[in-house]
Amino acid sequence: MVEALAGQAQSHAAPVFIIGGARTGSEMLKTMLSKSIELDFVDELFLHCPRWLHKDLWTNVVETAGDPVTADAVDLVVELIFSGRPYGWVFTVADQKFDRATLREWLTGSDITPQRLLSALMASHKQLTAKRGFGAKFPMHYGYTDRLLAWYPDCKLIHTTRDPRAVYASQANKYLIADASRLRNNWIRFKHFVHINIQITWTAAIHARYCRHPNYKLVRYEDVVENPRATIQDLCNFLEIDYVDRMLSPEQYGSSYESKLGNTGISKSSLDAWRKKASPLTTALIWATHPIARRQLGYVKP
Fold first, then answer.
1. pTM of the full predicted structure?
2. Can you give the residue range of the structural domain that contains 125?
3. Which of 105, 140, 164, 252 makes an SS bond possible with 260, Cβ 3.0 to 4.6 Å?
4. For position 86, which CATH number holds?
C-alpha cells in the first residue's frame, strides 16, 4: 500500500509535507493551498514527537497494540484512531476526517510500521476529498524530517518559519492564564522563552541541511502576509499545481492575538502585534542571541 500511494504521487504530484515550528503560519498556508482542487492535506498527526513535548501517536499505538505492531492488531489500531485518545485536534473529529474502511484496508496484510500508518492516514483522509494530490501538515515533529525523506524520497517539503520574536509572543500569549498569579504566568513565559530559543536553533539547522535539496522550500510567514500573491504563485510553481485566486482568501480561525473566527483573507495585523505582547527586554534577548540562525532564515532587520 505504501508503494501504491507513492505510485499515485508519481501520476500527479509528490507527497507534500508542511514542516516547521509552532506559530509559524502553517495553518494559514495549509488552508490557502487546500483551496487547490488538486491537493489534500491531513491535519497535524503528531506521529513522532520528542518526549518532552507530549505523547506522540506512535507511542499510543505501541501501548495499545504492542511492539512490534503485528498484522492482527489492525482492529486495535483503527479503534485507537477513532477513540479520541491520541493527542491532537484531528483525532477528536476522526469520524469527519478519516474514512474507516480505507484506513483498515491500508493497514491490513502485514505488520504496521510508522510509515504504513502515516500512508494509511493520508490515504483515508484523501478518500473523503476525492483529490489526487496528498500530504500532511506537521505529520511529525520537524526534527524527524529525515524520516519523511527516507520514507518518501520524492516528497516535497514546505518549511514554514517566522520572526522568532513573533513566535515567542504568539506562543506565550496563547497559554497565559487569565486568573493565574503573576508568578505562574511568568513561569509560562519563561518556558516559551526557552522553547523559542530551541526552535530557532533547530529550524535554522534544518534549513542549512536541506536548503540545497531540490524538493525543499522555505516559506516565511512575513512573505506570505506582505506579498501573498507572488509568494503563493511561486509556491504553486514549486508544487507543480495551478494557482487560483481563491487561495488568497483563506478562512481565519483566529490567533493568539485576536479572534478572527468567520473572517476570510489575510490580515497584516499580526506582523507587528508581538511588539505589544512581549517585553522589549525579552524580544531583544531573543534577537541578540541568534544572529547566525536569523541570517540563515532571512531575518536581518530588527
1. 0.90
2. 2-164+214-266
3. 252
4. 3.40.50
